[in-house]
């Protein structure tokens, strides 16, 4: 098993030594060891580029991935039982079921101390600060980002109003409000409609920041460029593009078999594409803007360019300056 992507044999007698070596608790190592044993059974796995996708985890936040609800229920129950052996307990109230449209409606339960608890089905769930939903729709997450950005601006408004230096005020806005608006944007699949939504939200934040209402802007015949000169803040779409390109470069240059890289390179050869126009994917904009073509012939794909750090830095500068 690999803990934090550092290879090591996690056997029970060596738990104390490994916990000290990796600076993690003995419970964490023991749980990871048992988790790997439970989830690597061949009848449960989803094969991705030769590897078995059964779960994702970040600290104590674990996602179990299975082919059917029945398998998911068995995996969850075994995880509950294993956690008890090392003194850990799963919070059933925070555990949710998120299933796609192809899954059956089988109810998932866990049993503990002769008590059966039904796990709630949800249409969406916030995981690591990002709202996930069954439709893979980014619109609800954009609404959350807008609310977070307005809350961030309201928190610093008194401070920025008291400052007289435009540069410091802009730096405060760009370091607090802009990240709240664009959190997780490296993984966004941007359409023209979503880009416009972000731009409009940022423009409203910018007007509030400089103390001008939309009515006053129209009366004074001020354009976006005029407001930008007054605020001196960064362009949100350029900021997002720079972050996405930077993240894309990291993904393609990694060689430690992380799921972000494996899934990007994965081609499900045994599956058929659904009828109709496919939805826009994360890499589609990169293919269109970055890949080198001569007419209709592809000369160098973006993924190949991204593996060369110097070339990719030049690409980022060319597309964000």
Automatic annotation (TrEMBL):
Q: Where is the signal peptide?
A: none
**Domain Reverse transcriptase positions:** 1-132
Tell me which domain of life the UniProt entry assigns to the organism this sequence originates from.
Eukaryota
Q: Which residues form a coiled coil?
A: none
Q: Which residues cross the membrane?
A: none
Q: Which PANTHER family does UniProt cross-reference here?
A: REVERSE TRANSCRIPTASE DOMAIN-CONTAINING PROTEIN (PTHR47027), REVERSE TRANSCRIPTASE-LIKE PROTEIN WITH RNA-DIRECTED DNA POLYMERASE DOMAIN (PTHR47027:SF20)
**What is the official name of this protein in its record?**
Reverse transcriptase domain-containing protein
Q: Organism source for this protein?
A: Caenorhabditis remanei
Q: Tell me the classification of the organism that encodes this protein.
A: Eukaryota, Metazoa, Ecdysozoa, Nematoda, Chromadorea
């Amino acid at each position: 098993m690999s803990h934090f992507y550092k290879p090591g044999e996690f056997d029970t007698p060596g738990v104390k030594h490994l916990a000290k070596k990796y600076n993690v608790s003995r419970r964490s190592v023991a749980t990871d060891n048992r988790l790997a044993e439970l989830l690597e059974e061949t009848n449960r796995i989803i094969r991705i580029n030769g590897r078995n996708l059964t779960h994702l985890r970040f600290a104590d936040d674990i996602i179990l991935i299975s082919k059917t609800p029945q398998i998911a229920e068995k995996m969850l129950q075994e995880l509950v039982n294993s956690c008890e052996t090392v003194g850990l307990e799963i919070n059933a109230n925070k555990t949710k079921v998120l299933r796609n449209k192809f899954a059956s409606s089988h109810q998932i339960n866990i049993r503990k101390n002769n008590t059966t608890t039904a796990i709630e089905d949800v249409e969406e769930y916030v995981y690591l600060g990002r709202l996930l939903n069954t439709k893979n729709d980014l619109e609800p997450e954009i609404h959350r980002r807008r609310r977070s950005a307005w809350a961030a601006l309201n928190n610093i408004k008194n401070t920025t109003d008291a400052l007289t230096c435009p540069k410091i005020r802009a730096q405060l806005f760009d370091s607090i409000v802009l990240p709240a608006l664009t959190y997780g944007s490296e993984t966004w699949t941007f359409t023209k409609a979503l880009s416009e939504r972000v731009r409009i939200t940022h423009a409203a934040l910018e007007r509030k920041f400089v103390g001008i209402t939309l009515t006053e802007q129209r009366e004074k015949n001020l354009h976006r460029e005029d407001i930008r000169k007054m605020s001196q803040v960064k362009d949100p779409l350029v900021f997002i593009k720079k972050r996405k390109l930077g993240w894309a470069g990291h993904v393609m240059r990694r060689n430690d078999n992380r799921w972000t890289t494996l899934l990007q390179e994965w081609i499900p050869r045994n599956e058929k594409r659904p009828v109709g126009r496919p939805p826009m994917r994360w890499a589609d904009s990169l293919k269109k803007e970055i890949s080198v073509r001569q007419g209709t012939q592809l000369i160098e794909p973006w993924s190949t360019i991204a593996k060369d750090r110097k070339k990719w830095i030049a690409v980022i500068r060319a597309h964000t300056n």
